[in-house]
Amino acid sequence: MLSIKTIAILLFEGVEELDAVGPYEVLAAWTRIRPDDGWRVITAGVAGPSPIRGAKGLVMTPDVALADAGPIDLLVYPGGQGTRRLMDDAPHLEWLRSRHSAPGAARVLAAGDLLTTSVCTGALVLASAGLLHDRPATTHWGSLETLAAIDPTIEVRPEDRYVDTGDTITASGVSAGIDMALYVVVRLAGEERAREVRRYIQYDPQPPV
Length: 209
Fold this sequence. Notes:
Blueprint: E1 5-11, H1 17-33, E2 39-45, E3 52-53, E4 59-60, E5 64-65, E6 74-77, H2 83-86, H3 90-98, E7 115-119, H4 122-128, E8 136-137, H5 144-150, E9 155-156, E10 162-164, E11 168-171, H6 176-189, H7 191-200
Parallel strand pairs: 1-2, 1-6, 2-5, 6-7, 7-11, 8-9
Antiparallel strand pairs: 3-4, 10-11
């Protein structure tokens, strides 16, 4: 019997909409067109299963409360103004730390290990939890100095679209979450699968400016 692994995308008041919905589109497309790969996607509400309002006003309802989500194999932590409160939420930071047996220096991901990713200022929460200590990381260009101030041991990479350190992946601002999610598909299912997903969602950005 196929063992299904869970991808959880966090939702909270003030979340930046595309930080959550961009990776959701990529990862949900993957799990729907290739269910035999053994993954599913859910949305988990940090404060419960009640509707939340995003940074630009979009109202979204999580599938479940984070506390009731069960085991999470891949966590997507979006950014947005709502991360400022979560950076000081001691129980929440402890929960993040508990996902990783040995926070600290970058390491190769072993079979069965958990993967934590962030988009935009979601990295600030990961840094506050100590998950980025002594690691390279990135975030939205407007928060690079804040990331460095939270933990001076972080090697801030302002030019990188995303940074992979094994059990954590940080992505820069907003739309970079889509690229990061496609990269996650590469890591978990291979380049051919990621190309299939990219074509399925017709992701071929050609900015007019």
